[in-house]
Amino acid sequence: MKKQVFVSGIGTGIGKTFCSALLVKLWQADYWKPIQSGDLDMTDSMTVRELVEDEVTIFPERYRLNTAASPHESARIDGVEIKLNDFQLPYSPNNLVVEGVGGLYVPINEDKFIIDLIKHLNLPVVLVVKDYLGCINHSILSIKALESNNIVLDTVVFNGPFSSATERVIRRHLPEEVACLNIPWLHK
After folding, report:
1. Which long-range contacts (CB under 8 A, 24 or more apart) does 56-61 make?
2. Domain ranges, ordered by start, for the chain
3. Which of 25, 33, 112, 144 is an active site residue?
4. Is there a catalytic annotation at residue 33?
5. What is the mean pLDDT of each run of 10 residues along the chain (188 residues)?
6. 4-183 has which CATH code?
């Protein structure tokens, strides 16, 4: 059965792109980043292409915004309006990894957030977590937000070294069926 997931995180800069590349390689999947906000000279799609090295389909971003800011602000600066109906999953006969922007409540417009895009695309989530002061709170809030929106949490990736006390608390708040993956620190 074909696997399709949406990679999100508990924040920005915690390793979603590198984890996405790892999943693309592991699952021999294609890749799509619906919104690239800033860094157009070295996009996340370009990074995945470099890291994977295999022949993989990387679908073009639906929005390529110039300013490194939340998509709603970048779109405003670029004179663009982002709507949920603008997004449709690209057709792929392979597994597909979709990478989000920042965390679940990053706004894509004045009313909608990344979590709304996940619901619209109807994908289970791979949640990337990094150990830092506040990550327990951010992780459990993300887990609860997914639950309250009836979004399936497929996997939690513990990215980098974790305090056993921190990891233990986060794992205790995961549904039983959620897979966990511990990997060495992968940034970006």
Report:
1. 56/24, 56/28, 56/29, 56/30, 56/31, 57/30, 57/31, 57/92, 57/94, 58/30, 58/31, 58/32, 59/30, 59/31, 59/32, 59/90, 59/92, 61/32, 61/33, 61/34, 61/35, 61/36
2. 4-183
3. 33
4. yes
5. 95 93 95 96 94 90 96 97 97 96 96 98 98 97 98 96 96 95 74
6. 3.40.50.300
